[in-house]
Amino acid sequence: MNLTQITAFVKIADNKSFSKTAEEMYLTQPTVSSCIKTLEKELSTHLFVRTTRGVELTEDGEKIYLYARQIVEASESIRQTLHIEENQKGNQQVLVAASTIPSQFLLPAIIAEAGKRWPRLRFRIHETDSLGVVKEIEENRADIGFCGTTHPNMNCTYVPFYQDELLIISPNTEKYRTIQEKRPEPGWIRKEPMILREPGSGTRQEALLLLHGMGIQEKDLNVIAEMSSTTAILQAVKQGLGLTLISRLAASDMITDGSVLMFPIAEGGALRNLNVVYNSRMRPSEKVRRLLRVTKELYGDTEDPKQ
């Protein structure tokens, strides 16, 4: 394999188009197609499949995509270091994995600011749960992640950037208004119907850890439903299905308008870190360092990784 083949592979994956890639590389489309066929023959696998949306990576293509991008980026860095001119019209894609809370409430401001500073950056964002974020980072399927918890024994570096408060939320009914007035200890939730996020959720993991520290085990809870959507959980609580453990970021609008009631998990607030995460086995790319820089400036706590 050679650099032209790898560059063509990366650009096709980003553009989802052979013709657009040919234009960017100043090559004919048959030449680009030939590059991919030769690369596929050498690797003994198919890298792309045509769909109604254009050209998509196969499973094997996904496995090698980030490695191929790192090769292309390293080549660009070498050229820039030696002041070798080359075509710089193409966009730089950043693969971001983010769990629900940072994805919906914090990441938009980060990518908006980064986009203003570096117009060539393009973001492909995959929203998943916190465990999914960590797996994508460890398996090199994303450049950078944002998640609501940490997972040990995985090759990831976690950088806290935001402190989020976790709350108990209930329907706004007479029963729960009475309980709220009494300001009870958290043990009152044991027999109440409870809706939890899915098992891979950082919100769920961190909230259960906090309750565990107060002597409340998961088995003690009357869990009647598990949902992956924070919005769906809030609507279920609003409709009277039960309580939930949730981020203040997610529930603030409903708390403000009185749709639901808020109960603190702990006196002074039950806080958990939201983290930037990247692969600890690899030197962070310039794009990752740029996002870390913007995150630090917006939220104040992150630090640039060691060069």
The rounded Rg comes to: 23 Å
Indicate the CATH class of the domain at 163-272: Alpha Beta
Q: Which fold name fills CATH's third level, the topology of the domain at 163-272?
A: D-Maltodextrin-Binding Protein, domain 2
What's the order of the H and E elements? HHHEEHEHHEHEEHEHEHEHEEH
Kindly report the name of the CATH homologous superfamily of the domain at 163-272.
Answer: Periplasmic binding protein-like II
Provide mean pLDDT, rounded: 88
Count, helices:
12
Beta-strand portion reads: 15-25%
Determine the N-to-C terminus distance: 29 Å
| Topology, number of strands | 11
**Spans of at least 5 consecutive residues with low confidence:** 85-89
Q: What's the CATH architecture of the domain at 163-272?
A: 3-Layer(aba) Sandwich
What is the 3D shape? Answer: elongated
Q: Major sheet, described briefly?
A: 9 strands, mixed
| Helix fraction by DSSP (H/I, runs of at least 4) | 40-55%
Quickly give the structural class: alpha/beta
